[in-house]
Amino acid sequence: MTESAGTPGDPDDAAAGEDRAPDAPPGEASGQAPREEKAAPGGETRSGSGSGPGRAPERCAGGDGGPALDITVGRKRHWLRWTALGASFVVLVAAGVGWWLYKKLDGNIRTDTSAAAELKAYEKERPVSVVHDAENILLIGSDSRAGDNRKYGRDEGGSQRSDTTILLHLAADRKSATAMSIPRDLMVDIPTCHKTDKTATRPQFAQFNWAFEMGGTACTIRTVEKMTGIRLDHYMIVDFNGFKDMVDAVDGVDVCLKEPIDDKDAHLKLTAGRHKLNGEQALGYVRARKSLGNGSDTDRMDRQQQFLGALVNKVQSNGVLLNPTRLYPVLDAATKALTTDPGLDSLKDLYDLVRGMRDVPTEKVQFLTVPRQPYHLNRNRDELVQPDADRLFKQLRDDEPVAVVPAGEKDGDGANGDRANEDRANEARANEDGANGDGGTDAADASGPSPTPTYSGNNAATDLCKQ
Q1: Would you tell me which of 245, 278, 365, 391 could form a disulfide with 333, CB atoms 3.0–4.6 Å apart?
Q2: Beta strands of 129-248 (E only): which ranges?
Q3: Can you give the pLDDT at residue 378?
């Protein structure tokens, strides 16, 4: 006969029942899967035992340790493994691309080691730094007509002069930056310098840009240091094409023209009104002399300063600095344009420099020209206006604040060295020449301490179309 579900089983079942939970159904021990009942010989149905004869018990799919769960876990682990491998591959590719871009930009920068060697030879003659952490960098715009620049004029044996020279002073707290232009026709004392053929030049009183032509960067640096008493920490040389590429990389710079321009020498033809200048047009705009303003180098430098301020403003905008697709072309153009001293010849060095300036408000990025006037022996040359020039040099040397106001807003405009102030400067020179040996003072000293001077100039926040 067949045993009912409630009939006690054989001894095997009895033994198994000892481990059964009180409420567990027959055949299920605590912590075990239910066992399938098998038909015993003679028609009796018996509970299968792991040690008894017959087929081994099968575990339910999805049960603890069951085959289906093993497959699911295996697939999950397999998927996670491939995901990790894929993520690692993406990271490696990104790192590789980043490293390649870094090396490319880093390799764009050219290093001038000859100037460093020349400066080292004259180290004892150079001024010392006065303020720790303040930095003074000489920016030189070369007017070489060699290579790609030949279309801008005749190349006279590959010679070059400093078309634009700017002393950039970065305050120690990096809360302001002052860019002081030095006129190329300024009459200065040029020290003995070595030419490329190693021959030495004689000391001479000549126009400033001769220093670059005769003795290159080192001679220019020593001439600026001799004139200002300011120790120059670094220098950069920028060529024409580099400037053009930077303007193109920021998608042009807006200017407003009061009158039309048609200058064949500058390769520039524009109508009056607002224009977004591309690189080629921008270069013509900052270099044009005869067709813009009064045709003087003074007017040209003012225009250069205003345009550089607008360029700085554009680069500092979020549309450039926070957009990698726009930032990379700017970095590429900038690094290709530069020749630097060994202290600034890597992307890391330049990044550290720019990082220190990125939080400087645009209104604190100021541009001005060294106080000057027509040279008394040749009105086509310039000379320093004193004591204004020495006062400005001292402010920069001591890292003191420098204030600028737009041209025409300063009474007399003397600090700008406007040509209309020649009589004032002549009077000052007469006082100096007439000073006697008993400790007499000139008019400037007799007037007593003067308030903090201001200089004609502009800042990077100036809108060229709202002047």
Answers
A1: 245
A2: 135-142, 162-170, 177-182, 187-190, 204-207, 234-238
A3: 93
Name the one residue in this structure whose structure tokens are 């899967």. Answer: 33
Quick check: 158 and 149 in contact, CB under 8 A?
no
What gap in Å lies between CA 60 and CA 129, rounded to an integer? 84
For residue 256, what are its two tokens?
């407003």
Using one digit for the tens of pLDDT, what is the confidence trace for 326-370? 888 888 888 888 899 999 888 888 888 877 787 888 889 999 999
Nearby residues of 152 by Cβ (< 8 Å), 6 or more positions away: 143, 145, 240, 267, 287
Mean pLDDT, rounded, for 297-319: 82
pLDDT at res. 123: 93
Say whether pLDDT at 435 is over 70. Answer: no
Instruction: Give dist(CA 104, CA 96) in Å, integer.
Output: 12
Q: Distances in Å between the alpha carbon of 433 and those of 186, 205, 415, 428, 443?
A: 22, 20, 21, 9, 12
Query: Strand, helix or coil at 132?
Result: coil
Helices 240-249, 324-337: inter-axial angle, 10-degree rounding = 170
Decide: 462 and 309 in contact? Cβ < 8 Å: yes
- Give me the pLDDT at residue 296, please: 66
Given the structure tokens 């301490």, which residue do they identify?
449
d(CA 193, CA 225): 14
pLDDT over threshold 60, residue 137 = yes
Q: What is the pLDDT of residue 93?
A: 64
Distance in angstroms (rounded) separating the CA atoms of residues 240 and 331? 16
CB 144 within 8 A of CB 160: yes
Q: What is the DSSP string of 443-454?
A: HHHHT---PPPE
Q: Specify burial of residue 232 (Cβ count, 10 A radius: 0-12, 13-18, 19+).
A: buried
Q: Which two tokens stand for residue 135?
A: 């930095």
Quick one: pLDDT band at residue 52, thresholds 50, 70, 90?
very low
pLDDT digits (tens, 9 = 90+) for 83-106: 777 777 666 666 665 666 767 888
Block residue for tokens 């099968």? 58
> Is 455's pLDDT higher than 50?
yes
| Separation between Cα atoms, residue 453 and residue 389, nearest integer Å | 11
- pLDDT computed for residue 89 by the predictor: 66
Rounded Cα–Cα distance for residues 442 and 143 (Å): 41
Mean pLDDT in residue range 223-238? 95
CA distance 28 to 35: 7
Nearest of 438, 447, 440, 436 to residue 387 by alpha carbon: 447
Q: Which two tokens stand for residue 125?
A: 């003659």
Q: CA torsion sign, 350 to 332 to 119 to 230? A: negative
Q: Tokens for 384, please give them.
A: 């320093």
DSSP state of 262: E
